[in-house]
Automatic annotation (TrEMBL):
Gene Ontology molecular function, alphabetical: transmembrane transporter activity
The protein's name: Uncharacterized protein
Residue spans crossing the bilayer: 56-75
Keyword Membrane: yes
Lineage top rank: taxon: Eukaryota
UniProt cross-references to InterPro entries, sorted A to Z: MFS_Str1/Tri12-like
Disordered: region residues: 109-128
Keyword annotations of the record: Membrane, Transmembrane, Transmembrane helix, Transport
């Protein structure tokens, strides 16, 4: 007889599942045939299920981050491409039109100097 006190009737299982979806003690207590012992076990199982589901999310997050870190070790070095040269400059409508030709000449000269210095540094590093 004690065994039957620790179980919820089969007719109340659908209500118990709906109450656990809400996750509140009052919803679980409202299930027909619910005893304090069963309610305590259901709440413990609900907390345990939530903890385990969150741990799987953390495991997946660790794997994704680890893959990102490992991929970062195999990236090419692009530092030699980062220069102060801007290929296009954006102006507001009508602003800067007179200075565009002058800026292009200065930018082209500066870009050529940077490209020459980069090329020379690259050749020196290849020789070493």
């Amino acid at each position: 007889m004690d065994y039957h006190r620790r179980r919820v009737a089969k007719s109340s299982l659908s209500e118990l599942v709906a109450a656990t979806a809400l996750g509140t003690e009052s919803a679980i207590a409202g299930v027909p045939g619910m005893t304090p012992t069963i309610q305590s076990q259901v709440m413990d199982a609900l907390v345990d299920a939530r903890v385990k589901s969150c741990s799987w999310v953390c495991y997946a997050m660790i794997a994704v981050n680890l893959a990102g870190v490992l991929a970062a070790f195999y990236l090419r070095d692009y530092d030699h491409l980062f220069t102060s040269h801007v290929p296009r400059q954006i102006y507001a409508r009508g602003e800067g039109i007179m200075h565009i030709k002058e800026a292009r000449e200065v930018d082209n000269e500066a870009a050529q100097e940077v490209d020459d210095a980069t090329r020379e540094a690259h050749l020196v590093s290849k020789k070493a």
